[in-house]
């Protein structure tokens, strides 16, 4: 079709020129035709070579036009004008190797006016060759961007329309100057932006093959194995969002945790329908179907056609049947010898929001590139009662307060960088999940919240009904954070405005420091981040399937959920798991008797739920304390702090709940206030200077005993005394350097 369009354009131009030449010029010179590249078209070499004589008969042009129509597309592409033999055929005409190539495209002639091939006629009129040469060199070639021997010249054609200007009753559309990217064909206005755009392609290892719709040959695939599951991926599979078969090996821990959560749900009721909304290579859904077999009915979805094709091939590679979506049920494909339904995986090609609106699922996992807030409403619309929704957010730059405006735009949450920023990110995501579930008259219970370097994983159980929705919505509150000492506390419930909200903070920084010392963060989730019973059963599943990476993290999460020191860590057997409360109801376990309240996914009456919740709800809340303190952040200057495990025991002996946290390797989760935390830390720290007292606790001034409520003012006075000692030491050092002889004599 490109050759056909070029032939038609050349025919129209030759007819007009033929009329003008018959009146004014002699037609004996060569190359009288203008190139048909004024609107970004590429001229056929065959057409141009046939335009040697100015008086070409119309019969020849019509015959040539018919030949172009009958020609195969590949043959027509091979005849496209190519000023360089290795010039890519799909590049824009503004991308050339040499200035001579650009001049050939303009077809310079000394005795004839020629237009610029990169400028419209209203911007640059046709001129003689010497002037056109100067125009191409100064206005196009000198401001070009070079990449791998090619020059991306500035283009003024109608490729990139600018906002129209209204003048009277007419609408004029300006055409802006721009560059065409050699890799992705994007149009960039500024030269500096074009250079940065190319550099981003280079840094990500992207090539033009990523932006061509033709699939790569199978010879370029390579097979990756994880958890006894084989998947074939492209060589650039580790580049996010830039390849159809994105596969990140660093997310192995994430996949193991999600698998354990699904295995626990599969033990409660069978079979369950689960959805991997963003399949990519399909490895997650393949692991579910391969290990859980008849307990699950797996659906893998992706909106990209190449990804769907690769998912089907990976299913065949793992000897799984492929069931297409409902519209194509008659075209089911079967691979393998088995005829059981357990080996069948349903593959769909549609938008994730659409598939979650059309069908109901017991387990839904969302793992888009970046934030998942765009899919929360659809996920909670049709998820079944007591089902599970898990979501992985990889937009860590906004969640970790590096791009605060993006976090406010996506999550409607105001956050700052704090020492507990990872837990702040998890509570930000859960708050968004809670609001989305409440809009569908559903409540949630958080089963698991993990925030590591690459992702934030949240797993919640869905509770239908307006009452659970109201209870969950009440747990979304604002947080008061002191920017001086980093003390923090959730605002109290209620709508009444307080005269002095600083009174809610345990510290006294507002009274001793000038100006405003606290900031309001949120709204955030203020409830628990873990469910101990669910985590214990996840740990059993990880041990059963040999998931080593998940085992170590789950052990830390169990200890963190109970918030007990390592030596007080309870070790319940498998038979004691049914004593844990989840969602106010009993959850079936392998050792649960038939007389207990089993959950099979069916909604119970409100009376049964209330009575069961009353029997199961403890007298006092056993939730772990929110947030944690970094021991290095609050270490005392000039003192050697104790080992972390010893310090945990010291806090536990002082009567506080304490545990380590997976959010920070040096973090301590405790219900002690910051002043109490610093008091215990200072008591068991030893001085670093020579001649200090032997190892042992440092006696604090006054009669302050560990375990008592330490007022905030006392801790501030201790800090002020330390600052005074530091200043005195600095003055003494200056005096010693100024008068060394006198000091030695004294």
Automatic annotation (TrEMBL):
InterPro entries reported in the protein's UniProt record: SAM-dependent_MTases_sf, Trm1, tRNA_met_Trm1_C, Znf_C2H2_type
Record lineage: Eukaryota, Metazoa, Chordata, Craniata, Vertebrata
Entry's localization field: Nucleus, Nucleolus
Region Disordered, annotated ranges: 1-85
Major location (coarse): nucleus
Keyword 4Fe-4S carried by entry: no
Pfam family, one: TRM
Organism of this sequence: Cyanoderma ruficeps (rufous-capped babbler)
The keyword Plastid is annotated on this UniProt entry: no
Gene Ontology terms, MF aspect: tRNA (guanine) methyltransferase activity; tRNA binding; zinc ion binding
Alphabetized SUPFAM superfamilies for the sequence: S-adenosyl-L-methionine-dependent methyltransferases
Biased composition (Basic and acidic residues): 13-32, 64-75
Catalysed reaction equations from the record: guanosine(27) in tRNA(Tyr) + 2 S-adenosyl-L-methionine = N(2)-dimethylguanosine(27) in tRNA(Tyr) + 2 S-adenosyl-L-homocysteine + 2 H(+)
UniProt keyword terms in alphabetical order: Isopeptide bond, Metal-binding, Methyltransferase, Nucleus, Phosphoprotein, RNA-binding, S-adenosyl-L-methionine, Transferase, tRNA processing, tRNA-binding, Ubl conjugation, Zinc, Zinc-finger
Similarity annotation: Belongs to the class I-like SAM-binding methyltransferase superfamily. Trm1 family.
Residues of the C2H2-type domain: 181-201
Protein name according to UniProt: tRNA (guanine(27)-N(2))-dimethyltransferase
GO biological process, one term: tRNA N2-guanine methylation
Residue spans of biased composition, Low complexity class: 1-12
Gene3D superfamilies (UniProt xref): N2,N2-dimethylguanosine tRNA methyltransferase, C-terminal domain (3.30.56.70), Vaccinia Virus protein VP39 (3.40.50.150)
């Amino acid at each position: 079709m490109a050759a056909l369009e070029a032939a038609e354009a050349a025919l129209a131009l030759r007819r007009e020129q033929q009329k003008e030449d018959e009146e004014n010029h002699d037609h004996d010179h060569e190359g009288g035709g203008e190139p048909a590249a004024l609107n970004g078209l590429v001229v056929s070499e065959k057409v141009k070579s046939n335009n040697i004589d100015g008086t070409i008969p119309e019969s020849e042009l019509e015959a040539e036009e018919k030949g172009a129509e009958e020609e195969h597309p590949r043959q027509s592409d091979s005849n496209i004008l190519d000023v360089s033999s290795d010039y890519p055929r799909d590049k824009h005409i503004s991308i050339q190797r040499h200035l001579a190539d650009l001049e050939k495209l303009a077809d310079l002639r000394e005795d004839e006016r020629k237009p610029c091939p990169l400028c419209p006629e209203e911007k640059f009129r046709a001129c003689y060759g010497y002037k056109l040469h100067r125009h191409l060199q100064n206005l196009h070639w000198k401001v070009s961007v070079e990449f791998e021997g090619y020059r991306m010249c500035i283009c003024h054609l109608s490729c990139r329309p600018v906002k129209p200007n209204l003048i009277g009753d007419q609408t004029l559309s300006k055409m802006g100057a721009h560059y065409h990217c050699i890799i992705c064909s994007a149009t960039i206005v500024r030269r500096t932006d074009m250079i940065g755009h190319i550099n981003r392609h280079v840094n990500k290892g992207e090539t033009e093959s990523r932006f061509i719709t033709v699939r790569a040959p199978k010879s370029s695939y390579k097979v990756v194995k994880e958890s006894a599951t084989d998947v074939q991926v492209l060589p650039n599979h580790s580049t996010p969002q830039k390849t159809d078969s994105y596969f990140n090996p660093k997310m192995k821990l994430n996949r193991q945790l999600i698998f354990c959560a699904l295995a626990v749900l599969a033990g409660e009721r069978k079979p369950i329908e689960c959805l991997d909304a963003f399949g990519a290579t399909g490895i997650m859904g393949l692991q579910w179907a391969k290990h859980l077999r008849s307990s699950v009915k797996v659906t893998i979805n992706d909106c990209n056609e190449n990804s769907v094709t690769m998912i089907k091939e990976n299913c065949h590679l793992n000897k799984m049947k492929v069931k297409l979506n409902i519209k194509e049920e008659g075209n089911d494909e079967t691979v393998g010898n088995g005829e059981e339904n357990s080996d069948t995986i349903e593959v769909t090609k549609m938008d994730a929001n659409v598939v979650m609106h059309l069908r109901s699922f017991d387990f839904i996992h969302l793992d888009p590139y970046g934030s998942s807030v765009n899919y929360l409403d659809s996920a909670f619309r049709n998820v079944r009662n007591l089902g599970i929704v898990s979501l992985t957010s990889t937009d860590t730059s906004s969640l970790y307060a590096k791009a605060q405006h993006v976090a406010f735009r996506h999550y409607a949450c105001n956050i700052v960088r704090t020492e507990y920023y990872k837990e702040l990110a998890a509570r930000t995501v859960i708050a968004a999940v809670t609001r989305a579930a409440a809009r569908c008259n559903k409540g949630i219970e958080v089963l698991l919240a993990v925030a590591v370097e690459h992702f934030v994983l949240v797993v919640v159980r869905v509770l239908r009904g307006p009452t659970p929705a109201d209870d969950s919505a009440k747990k979304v509150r604002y947080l008061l954070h002191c920017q001086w000492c980093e003390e923090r506390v959730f605002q109290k419930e209620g709508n009444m405005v307080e005269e002095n909200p600083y009174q809610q903070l345990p510290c006294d920084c507002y009274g001793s420091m000038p100006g405003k010392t606290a900031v309001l963060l949120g709204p955030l989730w203020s409830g628990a981040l873990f469910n101990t019973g669910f985590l214990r059963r996840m740990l059993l599943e990880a041990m059963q399937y040999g998931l080593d990476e998940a085992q170590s993290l789950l052990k830390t999460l169990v200890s963190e959920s109970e918030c007990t020191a390592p030596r007080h860590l309870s070790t319940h057997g498998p038979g004691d798991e049914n004593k844990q409360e989840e969602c106010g109801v009993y959850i079936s376990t392998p050792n649960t008797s038939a007389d207990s309240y089993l959950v099979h996914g069916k909604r119970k009456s409100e009376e049964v739920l209330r009575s069961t919740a009353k029997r199961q709800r403890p007298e006092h809340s056993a939730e772990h304390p929110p947030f944690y303190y970094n021991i290095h952040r609050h270490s005392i200057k000039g003192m050697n702090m104790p080992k972390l495990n010893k310090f945990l025991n010291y806090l536990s002996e002082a009567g506080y709940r304490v545990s380590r946290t997976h959010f920070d390797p040096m973090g301590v989760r405790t219900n002690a206030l910051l002043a109490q935390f610093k008091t215990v830390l200072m008591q068991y720290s030893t001085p670093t200077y020579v001649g200090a007292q032997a190892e042992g606790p440092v006696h604090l001034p006054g009669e302050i005993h560990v375990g008592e409520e330490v007022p905030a003012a006392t801790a501030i006075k201790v800090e002020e005394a330390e600052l005074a000692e530091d200043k005195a030491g600095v003055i003494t050092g200056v005096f010693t350097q100024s008068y060394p002889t006198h000091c030695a004599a004294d």
